[in-house]
């Protein structure tokens, strides 16, 4: 295992990795097609779009995709760890190797030279460039989308571009505000790339919501996907829910009620058996338990990891799971905030996902089923989770509460928590309304989705203030508002150096 080395971005290489140039998205230009070459190649062989789309999905779990050799650079699940730590629900429990130390100490986000600011920027703009190439290629060859395969590919490419811009909007923008603040460069085509200035928050959200709305339309009725790593209509609806919720107009929340209900009608909630391996229970006695199997019925979007993929130490499992060859098993524990854990009711089975004593690792939630310390050797085969239905049961309750349907929102919570056997007694929910009801839904979102990268999105959506528990190594007991600069990433140095139009 490697100690962390802060990799400052040298001016000598920054031209290659600038976020506002094609070269930013091409670390090996000699091995990639130029935009013009790509379009010409697609005209000769339309199946190239399929391969490029597959590459986008692969990029989501590829180590180094954020342009560094750092052990926290491995795509979406790396971002999920970042965000759970920024909102303080995930605790870094050791400093033996130094990964995440600057992030949890809130020194990384406010220093534009650090990898932590650079990795997400580089990762998401690479996805945007790839998605744009697919979109442009289809527009050039089948503008009316007469081919059903092209229609499905376009829907997925639009969803992937929107997914990337949505996360950029969450990570690099403190809040939506009035929408007029200039925040991020928008690239809606790979043609004629150049240095773009910042667009406004409204313009970014308009693109995201437009792309996802179109993706839903294009993917409705499409042929079934061949694997859960691919975006389908329900994943696109889920992403649209998040984007609408982040913008948060009354019309947005009304639409979320409908979209989340569509998802709920398609997917069951995670069963009690799958939610936790009870302490003392064996995997053989409860094979459904644990968040490591993409075939879990509630999983909507995730990756069926195989040995051939080469997923190892530089991964979610390599950072979080005590039962894999990991930093967590070597002393750099990833624990639940003990204030959050203590706030769970005594009858809440999700309390049992974590060790009751320090370190409060997710021993009974995220684990290799062999359950031996460092037992899962590289390459790993435990699967990766991006999205599950439970997110939308909770968002459905939140949307109903925000549209004046408090009684219906309480009913959703009662069914999810009580009917879902997470709690044995849900009587305390009766009569909740207004802000106390929204607070309860926010808390249940954090409790349900710990370690899955969704608490940060909920924090910003709820404009919440978080308080660190006393098991944090820094700022224990202190509070931070959702729009504190320390909780939002800075546009990285490479972008600022190489984009003279950024602030025009």
UniProtKB/TrEMBL annotation:
Key word Ion transport present: no
SusD-like N-terminal domain sequence ranges: 98-220
Main location: membrane
Entry keyword set: Cell outer membrane, Membrane, Signal
KW Metal-binding (keyword) present: no
Gene3D superfamilies from the UniProt entry: 1.25.40.390
InterPro entries noted in UniProt: SusD-like_N, SusD_RagB_dom, TPR-like_helical_dom_sf
Domain RagB/SusD: 360-503
Subcellular location: Cell outer membrane
One GO CC annotation: cell outer membrane
Pfam families xref list: SusD-like_3 (PF14322), SusD_RagB (PF07980)
Family: Belongs to the SusD family.
Protein name (record): SusD-like starch-binding protein associating with outer membrane
Organism of origin: Pseudobacter ginsenosidimutans
